[in-house]
Write a structure and sequence with these properties.
It contains 11 helices and 14 strands. By secondary structure, the chain is of the alpha/beta class. A 4-stranded parallel β-sheet has the order 2-1-3-4, sandwiched between helices. Helix 8 packs across helix 9. The longest helix has about 35 residues, at about 110-145.
Length: about 350
């Protein structure tokens, strides 16, 4: 009997030490013990069992229709799928093409008892997946609420993430990235000192040839995201977005490992994580750095009669005098803009003056 081997391990399972190699070895030993001839191996490494669309699984189903093998050998039911509906779809599709679905620890026939056992184990696999997801969610939430640890956030531009170090007994945390911090400081200075719009800031960044963290050129949305981010005022948030299915269909022949869409949650659901004072660009007396008496900082911001007043409101300083005490660029060519706790030289001092 010619058989195909199907193996799958998710990314989370990889971190727990479960490997594809161990599955392949077990199935090869089983095939040899039963006298099967291994015709092909299909490997989905790092793919969730909740997904129906997986590269190796699709190839397996296609080749089943071409009669390349008579059966498919699988370690456990949850390797095929952790969704009971998807499990039924795949199993029936393979059997309709004349391919037997053989699980290592279950009867290999198509009797009602065998189907019942597969369905029961499939339901347990789905239940286990839901329980793992719930425990993970509650564990992360506890760490954020009680221990104020950063969880599940991509570091904003200007920061980098330092992973947890068990040997040094340190938790994962952010630290200021000096190179990116210079750019962030310049961007806020262009808005506060130069009264430039985000579109004008974008043009300056491109003129200077300053690259973003990823890609070749800054986009308006990336600039807007920096200027609107409350992280620079000392607070980041967990549980800010909800992951959803993307509204755009994936390209043809493309596979999506995770849900790629996201939706902003109600602000009451956000969990605040304060930063150390040394990591804060601006203190603030308002809940938003982005919205100020200057108006919306966007493509067409409202003009303001007084730069210092605008700056005091935008940066969140308590009064104009405090804003003036901030280290600012002068016509004499000062080369530093102060960040609370740290000072960074700008890429080019002249760019922060109004053109």
């Amino acid at each position: 009997m010619r058989v195909a081997l199907y193996c799958r391990v998710s990314t989370d399972e990889q971190t727990q030490g479960r490997t594809i190699e161990s599955q392949i070895k077990e199935l090869e030993s089983l095939a040899q013990a039963r006298g099967y001839v291994v015709a092909e191996k299909y490997i989905d490494d790092g793919w969730s069992g909740a997904l129906l669309s997986r590269p190796a699984l699709d190839a397996l189903r296609d080749d089943a229709g071409n009669h390349l093998f008579d059966g498919v050998l699988i370690n456990d039911v949850d390797r095929l799928s952790r969704d009971i509906a998807n499990l039924a779809v795949v199993k029936r599709d393979l059997e309709a093409k004349g391919v037997d679905v053989i699980f290592k620890n279950l009867p290999s026939d198509r009797s009602p008892l065998s189907n019942f056992m597969v369905n029961i184990l499939g339901s347990f696999a789905e239940f286990e997946r839901a329980m793992i997801a719930d425990r993970t969610r509650r564990g992360r939430r506890f760490k954020v609420q009680e221990r104020k640890l950063i969880m599940g956030n991509i570091p904003p531009y200007g920061y980098r993430y330092v992973k947890k170090d068990r040997q040094r007994n340190t938790e994962g945390h952010y630290e200021v990235d000096p190179e990116e911090a210079r750019v962030v400081t310049m961007m806020f200075s262009l808005v506060a000192e130069g009264q430039l719009s985000s579109q004008a800031v974008l043009r300056r960044l491109r003129e200077l040839g300053i690259p973003p963290r990823h890609g070749r050129h800054w986009s308006w949305s990336s600039v807007h995201r920096v200027l609107a981010n409350e992280t620079y005022a000392g607070t980041t948030y967990y549980n800010k977005h909800e992951v959803t299915d993307s509204s755009r269909p994936p390209p043809a022949n493309a596979y999506v490992r995770h849900k790629t869409g996201r939706r902003l949650r109600d602000r009451t659901e956000w969990i605040a994580i304060p930063y150390p004072r040394s990591f804060v660009w601006f203190t603030r007396k308002r809940s938003s750095v982005f919205r100020s008496s200057c108006g919306e900082i966007g493509p067409s911001p409202r003009a303001t009669p007084n730069t210092s007043t605008c700056f005091a409101s935008f940066a969140g300083f308590a009064d104009t005098a405090a804003a003036r005490s901030w280290e600012r660029l002068t016509t004499g060519g000062a080369s530093t803009v102060a960040v609370i706790g740290t000072a960074f030289p700008l890429p080019q001092p002249s760019v922060v003056r109004q053109s």
